[in-house]
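Revision sheet: structure tokens.
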Amino acid sequence: MHKVFYMLLAVLCLFGLLFIRFRESVLFYDPLIDYFHGDYQNTPLPTFAKGKLMAHILFRYLLNMLLSLGLLWAVFRDKGIIKFTIVFYAVVFIVLSIIYYILLHHHTPSEYMGLFYVRRFLIQPLLVFLLLPAFFYYRKVNK
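Predicted:
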């Protein structure tokens, strides 16, 4: 019974991450979605509300983090891994949000890649796909 519950939890967390990804334009304020889908290499950034954008980035990051924590808990059921992941996510968010904010203010159309990739790490659940194999390897080495 426990295995079924944890497999169901993992699947629900994955579907939650997919839901956020595919409904991003409806759920979150992010004028850069359309900007990066267009001819962004030669155009200036669109006008946007900086505070609102940063708040929605934070909200989306927290949702992705909670679903990632649920996925990691379903797979490993280890409090040490969850504690490490919470600290890791917090440090990554602080560092990347500072870099993102600076890049928003000093963006030139020819230097779009930094802004694109920092934003990508903030809004997509990429960290969980880096942490999953790392924790599998960690458990394999320590057994």
